[in-house]
Amino acid sequence: EKERSQAIAYVSTALTLGNIIFPVLAGLAGVVHWRLAFSLYGLGIPLALLVLLTLPKKEATTPAKESLSSISGDSKKLSKVLKNPLILQLFLTLCLTSATTYAVVIYLPVYLNTTINSGTLLNGIVLASQAIGAAAISAFGVSKLTQNFGLILTTASGFGLMALALITIPQLSHLYGLLPITILFGIGIGLVIPTLYNLLSNLTPSQLQSSILAAGTGATFLGQFLCPTLFGLVVTHQGEIGVFYAAASLQLMLGLFLLATSKAKIGLQPK
Fold it and tell me: Is residue 112 part of a domain?
């Protein structure tokens, strides 16, 4: 159980780090020429070859007829799992959390450029500091916290840290005060995302976990897609500062709603 939770933490953190670091790399490449930003997608080709050459192939151990019967049975079980209101709530939470994370990636550099006239390099450093916080807590802290306090309380704490950081950002105008806050925001991300995936895993039969976790990843990509629309409306009416307050309010609501709806059903008590 401990190893599974840690593995999920590593995978979900890798996805989160990619979502943070990729725009930073694209921005740095864009400084040279805007077309270079699109060349980063070419990195997928050597990575695909690396996976193809290094990952071991899994041999089929079930006859074809039994396999088809198993697939049919799993489909019915998957449909039942997807009707679980808590599963749907976790998907929505992942979606909106991803939208918030991406909003910071988009609007924090704009805000910094307006307030302290920051350049591309400085913006990259600030955004990368989030990745440092997320990676550190996921690798060294999230497993111990979930064992001591349970998944729900750990997730709610992460939402609280994210909200605190988002509320604080508009109050700062110096880099030395901003970096600790963006690291704190990263720590919040590093607590929330792995524990949400762990909650999904705990609510799902073992044979369906890969499907549900993949759907969770799809929810995070949907959040990125919706982010410009959701927070673009906020920018139109409240400006860049309004984005941080709206995002903080959203994270607080998600954390409180998760606490209120889950109660002691799953992960509230440490194992």
Answer: yes
